[in-house]
Amino acid sequence: MTRHVAGRRPIIGITGAFERARWSVWDAEAAVVGRTYIDQVRDAGGAALVLPPDDEAALSPHYLLEHLDGLVLTGGLDLDPASYGARPHPQTVCGDGERDRFELALCHAAVEADIPVLGICRGAQVLNVALGGTLIQHLPDVVGDDHHLPSLGTYGRHDVELTPGSLVARTIGSERVVVHSHHHQAVDELGEGVVAVGRSLPDGIVEAIEVPGRSFVCGVQWHTEEERPFSPLLRELVERARARTVAPRGGTEPPVVLPLAGGDALATPAADNSGS
Fold this sequence. Notes:
CATH architecture: 3-Layer(aba) Sandwich
Distance between the termini: 8 Å
CATH class: Alpha Beta
Helix content: 10-25%
CATH superfamily: Class I glutamine amidotransferase (GATase) domain
Structural class: alpha/beta
Strand content: 25-35%
Shape: globular
CATH topology: Rossmann fold
């Protein structure tokens, strides 16, 4: 179990991707994540930790999750349709298989452990697929146009209607929002325990999902990290994660004594083994 220390910043894992990137005099492969995700987490009082794809961690995600208080699944290229039992559509652009395996395993384990999770765009799709759901591979085939993805490198804008009383609606403080949209895929069949709590207007595409019975597990198809002055969803994720950093009060366990060089010892508070 994680040893929580009262007052520290919650550690928020943010998934990244291996991409070709340029910086300074270099042009090479790098672990990439948009800075807006990091800024939103830090502005909300969290410590951002970038998580690159990792096949070894995918085999044992609980070990990594022991060091996290919250998880953000970011946007990116399409999931391999094989991950939800489908053949690829001609317009499906698969990314890194290692990233798919890593994020699906990490997400599933985080939901099981009731660690706060927020999936954004691709991340919402990862959440649904990790729990057994499927995806629409190319929205223009369903809605007849490409207004969810108007052009590369830009965000479209459209309305989303949220279910009254849902976690997402309560967090945002509204049952209707205008969102930053950039996607050509979306949730189709819902995963186990997943409910749809937001749909785009006027076409009814699923835009928000959540998992009732968990403290904070939800996904939105839009890019909430681009909202200003802040994203209510990312801020709430950090606040829910912060609750995991608070050590229980009134404990009766004796301090843990750690040996130091020279024979001295340092007394520290006992580890929190309460199961959080």
